């Protein structure tokens, strides 16, 4: 025989919700209130559980497929260097030689044998 699910709630700050699934009632949530909440007549409820919640990993290893930013550098009509793939939202672009930092795109490390004279002063202004 199925037992009815009983839930009792109140807006009083010292009481809490109960769930009954048979002979043993369990605390379903523990409310917390503040002065502002009491003035607005609201109650915040945090769920309580004995079960472990499996969460996805916060960071995964970067791969070629999950790049956030792809940069192609052009000098006039010529593409210079390989595509730069960055796996974070923070990226530094400068005109110096690279330090090997995966979040830094350094134009100074890109060589171009057919570089036109007008490009050199512009590259010095980047970064």
TrEMBL record:
TM ranges are none
InterPro entries tied to this protein: SMAD-like_dom_sf (IPR017855), SMAD_dom_Dwarfin-type (IPR001132), SMAD_FHA_dom_sf (IPR008984)
Q: List the GO biological process terms.
A: post-embryonic development; regulation of developmental process; regulation of DNA-templated transcription; regulation of multicellular organismal process
What is the scientific name of the source organism? Answer: Strongylus vulgaris (Blood worm)
Q: Which residues form the MH2 domain?
A: 68-127
Superkingdom field = Eukaryota
This protein is called what? MH2 domain-containing protein
- A Pfam family (short name) is MH2
- Native organism taxonomy: Eukaryota, Metazoa, Ecdysozoa, Nematoda, Chromadorea
């Amino acid at each position: 025989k199925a037992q009815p699910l009983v839930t009792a709630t109140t807006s009083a700050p010292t009481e809490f919700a109960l769930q009954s699934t048979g002979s043993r009632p369990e605390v379903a949530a523990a409310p917390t209130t503040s002065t502002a909440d009491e003035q607005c007549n609201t109650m915040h409820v945090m769920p309580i559980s004995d079960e472990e919640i499996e969460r996805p990993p916060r960071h995964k290893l970067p791969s070629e497929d999950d790049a956030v930013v792809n940069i192609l550098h052009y000098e006039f009509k010529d593409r210079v260097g390989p595509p730069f793939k960055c796996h974070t939202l923070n990226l530094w672009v400068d005109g110096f030689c690279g330090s090997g930092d995966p979040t830094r795109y350094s134009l100074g490390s890109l060589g171009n044998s057919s570089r036109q004279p007008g490009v050199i002063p512009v590259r010095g202004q980047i970064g």
